[in-house]
Design a protein that fits this description.
single chain; alpha/beta; Rossmann fold; 6-stranded mixed sheet; globular
């Protein structure tokens, strides 16, 4: 069973409600129909009901039974406005600004649905930048109590691959933190280990990645990953983590035997922590496009409630997969 098939089976066991605020995007409508057909979650769309149904019909989809919440005609709208105002008034938000934001920003409205308990999680980003997804999430839902920072990861599932966890990997950070410090990288490793265990169900083996393996190169960028490894080992002693590793030394046993003999992670890593956003983002896209891997994410970790981003190059099936992941996350909150 593939990673995503396992996630879908888990989602079916505990049905959650996921809000999809980007109802203007055809991929979102297609994904909503597929989620319902597969029985993965309940779906709520944000927008105008008549327009959503008409747009869906034009795509050959029937979404007439899907709840569509229109902020312009929503019986709890004033309650939402008051709650948002109370949450943000210390930052200078007025009631008028709260009302305007909820009327004009479907992502903000979707996050408020999660905050108010009308949805268990949100998936968006098909036609919005990551910052547009993250900003209202952090402003309204805040960082989780046990998280040091919010980061983003992809689950990479490579077909016919003997490396990682039978071809399944977690790549972090691929979507959010541009140049994390050593301390932040250690925190990302800790969060990623929890996410891997929760979603994949296997023990995480974490590689701190670099262009160097165990001192083969000397550079400040190498030093950053060495320090991150040491911090992670000291601060999170429960983790199985090692580094610094080149990618091949992290996943290929024969290379690890030569470059990092005796490492409990080398040649066996399934959680890959990249030194910066350039490396992580480029790597996941290479795996997706050249290795034909399924790439699910960017999944956010560290937000108090499940809110997940999408790549703007995503397909409808990608959205379905992230909805299933979000539902599983919501079941464990």
């Amino acid at each position: 069973m593939s990673f995503i098939d396992g996630i879908k089976e888990r989602a079916k066991q505990n049905i959650k409600t996921i809000v999809l605020p980007e109802s203007e995007d055809p991929r979102t409508l297609e994904a909503a129909a597929k989620v319902l057909k597969e029985g993965l979650a309940k779906v709520v769309l944000v927008g105008n009901k008549d327009k959503v149904v008409a747009d869906a019909k034009a795509q050959g989809l029937d979404l007439s039974d899907v709840p569509v919440v229109d902020p312009n005609n929503f019986d709890r709208f004033d309650e939402y406005v008051n709650t948002l105002f109370e949450l943000r008034k210390a930052k200078g938000m007025t009631e008028e600004a709260a009302r305007e934001g909820l009327l004009t920003n479907p992502l903000m409205f979707g996050v408020m649905m999660v905050k108010m308990g009308d949805a268990d999680g949100m998936v968006s980003g098909a036609c919005h930048a990551t910052a547009d997804v993250l900003r209202p999430s952090l402003q309204i839902l805040k960082t989780a109590p046990d998280a040091e920072l919010v980061s983003a990861f992809f689950i990479i599932d490579v077909p016919n691959c003997e490396y990682g966890e039978n071809g399944t990997f977690l790549f972090a950070d691929c979507g959010l933190n541009q140049d994390p410090s050593s301390q932040e990288l250690a925190a990302i490793a800790n969060s990623s280990a929890k996410s891997f265990k929760s979603l994949v169900g296997k023990e995480p083996r974490i590689a701190m990645l670099s262009h160097s393996t165990k001192g083969s190169a000397k550079h400040a960028l190498v030093d950053k990953m060495v320090e991150a490894t040491n911090i992670a080992k000291e601060k999170y002693p429960q983790l199985t983590v090692d580094g610094e590793f080149q990618f091949d030394a992290a996943i290929v046993p024969s290379v690890a035997a030569s470059k990092a003999p005796g490492s409990e992670v080398g040649g066996k890593a399934n959680v890959m922590i990249f030194p910066n956003l350039d490396a992580g983002n480029i790597s996941y896209k290479i795996a997706q496009r050249l290795a034909k891997a399924d790439a699910f994410g960017p999944v956010l970790q560290g937000v108090a409630r499940p809110v997940n981003d999408l790549s703007r190059g995503c397909s409808a099936d990608d959205i379905v997969g992230v909805v299933a992941i979000t539902a599983v996350q919501a079941a464990s909150v």
